[in-house]
Write a structure and sequence with these properties.
CATH class: Alpha Beta
Protein name: Methyltransferase type 11 domain-containing protein
Distance between the termini: 58 Å
Family: Belongs to the methyltransferase superfamily.
Keywords: Methyltransferase, Transferase
GO molecular function: S-adenosylmethionine-dependent methyltransferase activity
Number of domains: 1
Radius of gyration: 22 Å
Shape: globular
Number of helices: 14
Helix content: 25-40%
CATH architecture: 3-Layer(aba) Sandwich
Largest sheet: 11 strands, mixed
Pfam families: Methyltransf_11 (PF08241)
CATH superfamily: Vaccinia Virus protein VP39
Oligomer: single chain
Order of helices and strands: HHHHHHHEEEEHEHHEEHHEHEEHE
Strand content: 15-25%
């Protein structure tokens, strides 16, 4: 009995020593190596395989959950993206619409007629969309409604559209993992590019990155296999070909020039990184900083996190990590505004449980970069001329 206990203790010690820290590159290399063996299997198929014991990430929004926000953001509002969002040939879109009709399913922002009407009502009466400036002691300005303000509440910048003015845009996803958003986005945008009625390209380049060589290798194989299956394209289709690529890259030090992408997507990478008690916060600040550096003026940093700014902890994270990172890497000519899309935090009964933690579920942050005349020196000094960052909430 004593020998068995000693042997078990030895095995446990060996296992704990060999297990890399969650959020580290070593952890994800081992994880993906296990999930994506030799790997003729598509990463997307593995992530959705119910029989696969190591399938994960399904607690985050998928691309089809997020497309009612991503597509209007690129194309300039829900009306512009309507044909894609209501594509009857897309089974996933139909499933999503069925989910929207379920009143109990309120975990993610969905695209439906009722939701759009509710959002418009919220913009009129101030219940859901709040905009008046209320000075905050941190680095941002919270938007809140006021009975004294008769002006029409501003709409989300989703209605502006990143790709409706000027040349085609480029899209980057950092920490894409085995369930990348850019794969579904590329499928949607390829249909737009192939449309004979579409006179200009919306997007010309999409890049998915991760610091795991295992998952990037698997994604490259998947992409090559998919291109072969699609067959040869006509000369016109080749001219309108959407450039899709995958690169091994660390989100803390991206190998791209300043201001080279108009839309940067990040889903869950910072949530994994911040779990490290020693360097988690500094790693996340560096991720935001380098995304801010790489984002073009007029672009959007699209961030999905379980840390919701509509909670007290989320508010602290927004200021200590996100705002700090934006100001560190944004450049002398950048100013910022933030939209938080998601569920509002529930009202808790403090008398019942003082230890109750507020939870609003995951949130989608739309972080817009625009030009600024404030110098970096003044911003660092925190002078009166340092701009606060407007913050606007959209509750669903």
């Amino acid at each position: 009995m004593a020998k068995a206990q000693k042997r078990q203790k030895k095995n446990d010690t060996k296992e704990s020593k060999s297990l890399p820290k969650y959020g580290s590159k070593e952890y994800w290399e081992q994880r993906y190596e296990k999930v994506l063996p030799d790997s003729e299997k598509d990463p997307k198929e593995v992530a959705n395989d119910e029989e696969e014991p190591d399938a994960f990430h399904n607690w985050y929004f998928t691309y089809h959950d997020l497309r009612p926000i991503i597509l209007p953001l690129i194309m300039g509002g829900k009306e512009a993206a309507q044909s894609l969002l209501e594509d009857k040939n897309d089974d996933s879109a139909r499933d999503e619409k069925d989910d929207d009709e379920d009143p109990d399913n309120s975990d993610s922002p969905k695209d439906d007629d009722d939701g759009e009407e509710n959002e418009e009502e919220g913009q009129e009466d101030g219940d859901d969309n709040n905009k008046e400036e209320a000075e905050n002691n941190d680095g941002w300005e919270e938007a809140s409604d006021s009975d004294d303000n008769d002006e029409t509440t501003e709409e989300s910048k989703l209605e502006t559209g990143l790709a409706i003015v000027g040349e085609p845009i480029s899209v980057l996803e950092v920490g894409c993992g085995d369930a990348p958003l850019v794969v579904g986005l590329a499928d949607d945008l390829s249909r737009v590019n192939d449309d004979d009625n579409q006179t200009t390209l919306l997007v010309h380049r999409i890049v998915g990155t991760d610091y795991s060589s295992n998952v990037i290798s698997a994604l490259k194989r998947m992409h090559q296999k998919k291109r072969k299956a699609n067959g040869e394209k006509t000369d016109k289709q080749q001219q309108r070909q959407l450039a899709m690529e995958f690169q091994e890259a660390d989100a803390r030090k991206l190998p791209f020039p300043d201001k080279s992408f108009h839309l940067i997507l990040e889903k869950g990478t910072m949530d994994a990184m911040i779990s490290d008690p020693d360097v988690g916060v500094s790693n996340c600040i560096q991720i935001v900083s380098d995304c801010a550096r790489t984002l073009a003026i007029g672009g959007c940093f699209f961030l999905v996190s379980h840390i919701n700014a509509q909670t007290e902890k989320g508010e602290e994270w927004l200021n200590d990590v996100v705002v700090t990172g934006l100001r560190k890497g944004g450049g002398d000519d950048a100013s910022w505004s933030i939209e938080v899309h998601g569920n509002a935090a529930p009202v808790l009964d403090e008398e019942k449980d003082d230890n109750n933690e507020d939870s609003a579920g995951p949130a989608v942050y739309l972080i817009f970069k625009s030009s600024s005349t404030i110098t970096k020196d003044k911003e660092k000094e925190g002078s009166d001329e340092t701009p606060t960052i407007p913050l606007q909430f959209f509750s669903y």
